[in-house]
Amino acid sequence: MKHLKILLKNLTAAFSLLMLFSCASSPEKKIDSIYVMVYDYDSGEIMDVSVFMDGKKIGKTDIYGRFMYPCNAEKKAVIRVEKTGYESVETNACIKPGIVLYFKMGSSLYYAQKAEKLLDENSVQEALKMIDTALKIQERTDWHFLRKVILRRCENAE
Question: Residue 19: which of 11, 31, 30 has the closest Cα?
């Protein structure tokens, strides 16, 4: 038993020395990608968002709403993100290695719920804007009905 303890101590010491002397400092890694991060208005990540650069699809976001794309030079580009059920968002950006682009996207459900809340608060004009945005993103019968309710409320307010 005593020999086993000594053997384990020696092995631990040898392993520690090996790790100590095998470590070498590596040169700083060059960041050669752009990063795209896509969230909803509740700060939740949105997965499977299509990412476009200058009109060409370059990929989709992962389950965390992130996407990396190789980039080794600076250039100007139009970046667009889109997903069914969400508004499309586009920006002109100066793309360079290491840049992080953040996008916030509203879903049709988000805008419809906002319209209902604004209607409850008697902000009928704002409610109308929100439901129209929801309908631009996604056509739904129940949202057309909500739009009619909002319009009726507008008529009664006048």
Answer: 11
- Percent of residues, the chain, with pLDDT higher than 70: 79
Cα 41 to Cα 103: distance, rounded to the nearest angstrom: 10
Task: Please state, in angstroms and rounded to a whole number, the distance separating the CA atoms of residues 122 and 109.
Answer: 20
Three-class SS of the chain: CHHHHHHHHHHHHHHHHHHHHHCCCCCCCCCCEEEEEEEECCCCECCCCEEEECCEEEEECCCCCEEEEECCCCEEEEEEEECCCECCEEEEEEECCCCEEEEEECEHHHHHHHHHHHHHCCCHHHHHHHHHHHHHHCCCHHHHHHHHHHHHHHHHHC
Backbone angles phi, psi at 48, to 5 degrees: 60, 35
Domains of the chain and any CATH numbers: 33-105 (2.60.40.1120), 108-157 (no CATH)
pLDDT per position as a tens digit, 46-95: 999 999 999 999 999 999 999 999 988 899 999 999 999 999 999 999 99
56 Cβ neighbours under 8 A, 6+ residues apart: none
Contact yes or no for 79/90 (Cβ under 8 A): yes
